[in-house]
Amino acid sequence: MNDDELQRWVESVSLTAFGVPFRHQARFNGRLRTTGGRYFLRSHHIEISPHQLAVHGAEETERIIKHELCHYHLHLAGRGYRHRDADFKHLLKHVGATLHCKSLPGAKRSLPVKFYLVCRECGMSYPRKRKTDPRRYVCGKCRGKLKLVPAEASE
């Protein structure tokens, strides 16, 4: 599928699911790996990950298109278009879109745990991926002071 076919598909989904035409540009972006698509607030264009189509098929990609069209139509209507807004959540449910897309194989980029914040009082341990100032926090269990310990020293 190329960008022209995607454009026609998005226009068709917009008319059938929302009853309003899509008047901007839709295109594939091969760099999108951790997200299924995105909507641009300034230009009102939509980008869709071609990897989602290849891995999960047309049905899941259509849900992603509907998700981005929810952002699009609500933003142009001046209503709540962000994920946390009630208007957005209601419209997602109404058109059968998903809030989150399925993840692609090998796309998860998680940092390893490098540090622990350890409570001096009760010994409770909090894993951290980045170095953190322990003076800014207290233990959630006993409100004690914390110390920063490298991951290999705590194991």
From TrEMBL:
SprT-like domain boundaries: 4-149
InterPro entries hit by this protein: SprT-like_domain
Protein name as catalogued: SprT family protein
GO biological process: response to stress
SMART domains, per database record: SprT
